[in-house]
């Protein structure tokens, strides 16, 4: 049913794992960061959709075919690096977009309308959703209207976004190391 790993075309001769981060994979990382990331940001702003999922396949197919046309096909390790790192390179700056959406929500007409409001149980006053949004999610409306991320009120929302991104990447890295230990070293 299957071939043994010893018969694979790009299996290393010494039995050691080879690095996929080579001079042929750095251009695709830069391509993801410099070309695909702005395209992703534009699509997110215009249509509300992100390309982070398909970007891996776009970069992989493009790079595998370009390498095949140059008569030097990518190894499995290089293809894996292209697949896994291209989405990271193209999607890392997207978390700043998640600061723009709450800011827009804070000043939007819909969130400030009486249609989407509720009566506060403690004071009995009507509160709109924009007023009820916490300050760690978006700064006050007067700060958002300044259109300046350098205001001190932005420190908390951006800091929480960056901390969330950091812990997400740390969890990904830990799961990768755990998976490597379990499935490559142990098995």
Automatic annotation (TrEMBL):
The chain crosses the membrane at residues 41-64, 76-99, 154-183. Keywords: Membrane, Transmembrane, Transmembrane helix. The keyword Transmembrane helix applies. This is Uncharacterized protein. It comes from marine sediment metagenome.
């Amino acid at each position: 049913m299957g071939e043994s790993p010893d018969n694979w075309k790009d299996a290393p001769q010494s039995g050691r794992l080879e690095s996929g981060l080579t001079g042929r994979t750095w251009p695709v990382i830069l391509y993801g960061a410099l070309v695909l990331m702005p395209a992703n940001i534009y699509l997110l702003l215009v249509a509300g959709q992100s390309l982070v999922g398909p970007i891996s396949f776009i970069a992989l197919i493009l790079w595998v075919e370009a390498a095949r046309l140059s008569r030097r096909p990518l190894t499995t390790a290089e293809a894996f690096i292209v697949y896994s790192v291209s989405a990271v390179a193209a999607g890392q700056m997207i978390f700043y977009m998640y600061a723009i959406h709450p800011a827009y929500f804070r000043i939007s007409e819909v969130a400030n309308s009486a249609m989407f409001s509720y009566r506060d149980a403690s004071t009995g006053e009507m509160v709109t959703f924009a007023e009820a949004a916490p300050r760690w999610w978006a700064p006050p409306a007067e700060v958002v209207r300044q259109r300046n991320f350098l205001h001190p009120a932005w420190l908390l929302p951006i800091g929480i976004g960056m901390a969330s991104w950091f812990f997400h990447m740390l969890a990904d890295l830990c799961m990768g190391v755990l998976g490597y230990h379990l499935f490559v070293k142990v098995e």
